[in-house]
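Researcher: Structure prediction, please.
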Amino acid sequence: MARGELRGVVAVDGPSGTGKSTVARRLAAEFDAEYLDTGAMYRAVTLAVLRAGVDPQDPDAVAEIAAVAELASGTDPEAPTIDLAGEDVSEEIRGPAVTLAVSPVSAVPAVREQLVGRQRQIIADALARTGGIVVEGRDIGTTVAPDAGLKVFLTATPEARAHRRAAQDNASGRRADVAETLADVRRRDTYDASRAVSPMRRAEDAVTVDTTELDIPGVLSELAALIKQRGLTAVPQRSRS
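Model: Predicted structure follows.
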């Protein structure tokens, strides 16, 4: 990828269903930057745990799987990928089995330590390569990239998030019930906010954006304005169509 317009790191944190993935990808594309979905990495490790027949509630066994998991994250916002042992598992990691098991797996301290190290290396490589990257997750502004030039924390009501997630799953061919999705949203929130290592929380210097009543273009407009206000842009190296 050629050097783009974004300079530095934009950290986008928040719970599922806030539009985080869509916003982060589109923002990265708009500024010719790279993109990293850290949640996909935790899901890929979870899939490796399940494939190995390991109990997701066994932290020692989970840590052993995470230590040897062969992960590769594609950072093109137009076509992001996540590979496990050379296999593209982008679709499989969104299935119900992984969704149910990812919280206990991602709460294991050794797993978080290993993946945070990998994530920081991906960020460093992207900055050297193209100059900018938009990173999404739940602990980017607090742990993975605490020096990010812009930190954003997206939020929305649990009900709004459940409706969005269910609609997204159904559109992708994965049957989802809103009531069950709402229960899963609340369960995941509790796990993420209470884990011992890198709990999900808003960084002190993050900008909070409530997406309950905002559409994607509205959120993008706010974040694009913040990027420009922070001086995180450079003249793009290629013309835009």
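Model: The first strand starts at residue 8 and ends at 13.
Researcher: Thanks, that helps.
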